[in-house]
Structure formats: structure tokens, C-alpha cells
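Chain A, query sequence.
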Amino acid sequence: MEPVNAMLDLFGTATLPGLASAEAFVSPADEAALIEHIDEAGLSPFKFQQWTGKRLTRSFGWSYDFETGRFAPADPIPTWLGTIRERAARFAGLDAADLVQALVIRYDPGAGIGWHKDRPVFEHVVGLSLGAPATMRFRRRSGGKFERATAPLAPRAIYHLSGEVRHDWEHSISEMDATRWSITFRSLAGRV
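Chain A, predicted structure.
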């Protein structure tokens, strides 16, 4: 594993251009309510081509089918996501109407997410991490090696990926030892 070549802040945390984050974005009571809603959202296993992942997901607004490569409208973003969508948009400096897709995920123990960039049809990525703490890992190819960085995701933390970190870096989350939930809002490319 190559050492981190990203800029570090005073606390040793990577600061990547286009990455913004904040802890304690929602209260513990709001977190519990959001987790309950996610668990009641009709989640299904994530499928990528012939592979079925351990995480459970549901898309609203727009969906991307990884088996067919089809991008299509999905059920509308539910009202229970309205307030958090507005707050997430303000955090990212966007209008709530620009966040046209919501993805809710439950990561049970043993679930994670591999290295990827969000699909090019999307632009801004604003995520809320609930439940167990996690570490978001970042990498980008530099010659024959990878530059690497990490960012902690505390329970109830929010993050925004835009610009360089959104387009030039891949990200992932290691397999979890405890249950974690997430809500990710996205804007469409070319809209914002």
C-alpha cells in the first residue's frame, strides 16, 4: 500500500479538493428516525452484473441498473427525506430541487462497497452516514502507483463530493463489523 500523498490538515485527516464534511449533522433522534424509515423502505440486495452484494439498497427519483446499464426514473423521493434533502442541499450550496436522486443503503456486518466513481450521469454527491462509524477511502492513479487518502465518517456525519475528488478519485468503504446506513443524494450532470 502506498503512503498517502494527499494534503493533510492539522489532525492528519486528508483534505482533498472538492471534499467537504461535517460531523453531527443530525441529532441522535433524527438518526434513529431516518434508520427506521430506511429499514421500512423496501430494500433489496445490490446487484452488479452477475454478482449480488451484501448491502441492501433502494433508489428514489432516478435509478441506475448495474445489470443492464439502464438509467431511468424511479419512485419519487419520499416525503420523509424532504427535510434532510433540503439540509443536505444547503450544506452543499445547492438547491434542494437539484438533488434529484436519493439512494438509501443498509450495510449489515460483512458489507462494504468496492472502489468506484459514481456514474457520469450524476454530478454532486452528498451523503449522510448513520449507525456505525466508517472510513471512506480514496485513491487515484498516478503513473504506475495510486495516491491514497482517507476520511472518517462518524455516525450522523455528512459529506459532499464535487470537482476533483468527485471526478478524479475513486472511493470505497471497507467491509463493516457493525450495521451502518447511508442516504446519498445526487444531482444530474449538466444541471448544476
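The domain at 19-188 is CATH 2.60.120.590 (Jelly Rolls). The chain has three helices and 13 strands.
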